[in-house]
Amino acid sequence: MEIIVNNEDAVNEQMMDKLREAASACIGMDVEISLSFVSLDEIHELNRDYRGVDRPTDVLSFPMFESMEELEEACENMDEEGQNVPLGDVVICMDKVIEQAEQFGHSRERETVYLFTHSILHLLGYDHETEEEKKEMRQREEEIMEELGLGREEIQSSREETEIQ
């Protein structure tokens, strides 16, 4: 598993460790993910240019493969060569991370890891266009976040313990 960060100043090593954990929890194969942290203006431009949506968003995913079958085939071929498969690109807006962490009452770490997890699931073919797809994707996100100790219940318990002390 390799995460290539285009602007390493955006995150510290502890955050990178959590992002690696999240990627491993999402993916059971050797892959390479490109990760960029951008401003509100940059993500607005990308969202407009690539999705036709003229507003900023929190995260964008750019998959390398059209289907899970293509990804699995690439993994088999790359595995023989001992290389990581390039899964795709993830772009996270740090301004949105800060805004949403405050809005939802949790840490920037949790918001960043959640957006990264959400985006990786998109790279793996998950979507949320229909209610059924949304339910399946949200369930997988929650499973991963709980595995990482960043689930909603863990965050709430931690918050309650802090308030008691």
Verbal overview:
The protein is an alpha/beta fold. The protein has one domain (2-164): Metalloproteases ("zincins"), catalytic domain (Collagenase (Catalytic Domain)). Helix content is 59%, strand content 16%. The protein has seven helices and four strands; from the N terminus they run βαβαβαβαααα. The chain has a four-stranded mixed beta sheet with strand order 1-2-4-3. Helix 1 runs parallel beside helix 5 and helix 4 (94-104) packs across helix 5 (108-123). The longest helix has 17 residues, at 131-147. The radius of gyration is 16 Å and the shape is globular. The chain starts with a strand and ends with a helix.
Summarize the entry for a quick read.
By secondary structure, the protein is α/β, with parallel strands linked by helices. 59% of the residues lie in helices and 16% in strands.
Give the topology, please:
Layout: E1 2-5, H1 13-26, E2 31-38, H2 40-51, E3 59-63, H3 68-81, E4 85-93, H4 94-104, H5 108-123, H6 131-147, H7 152-164
Parallel strand pairs: 1-2, 2-4
Antiparallel strand pairs: 3-4
Helix pairs in contact: 1-5, 4-5, 5-6
Residues in helices, as a percent range: 55-70%
- Total of domains: 1
Which CATH first-tier class would you pick? Alpha Beta
Based on secondary structure, the structural category is alpha/beta
Count of helices? Answer: 7
Give me the strand/helix succession: EHEHEHEHHHH
Percentage of β-strand residues: 15-25%
Instruction: Count every beta strand, where a strand is a DSSP E run of 2 or more residues.
Output: 4
| Mean pLDDT reading | 85
Give the radius of gyration: 16 Å
Going across the biggest sheet, name each strand in turn.
1-2-4-3
Which fold name corresponds to the CATH topology?
Collagenase (Catalytic Domain)
Largest sheet: 4 strands, mixed
CATH superfamily descriptor: Metalloproteases ("zincins"), catalytic domain
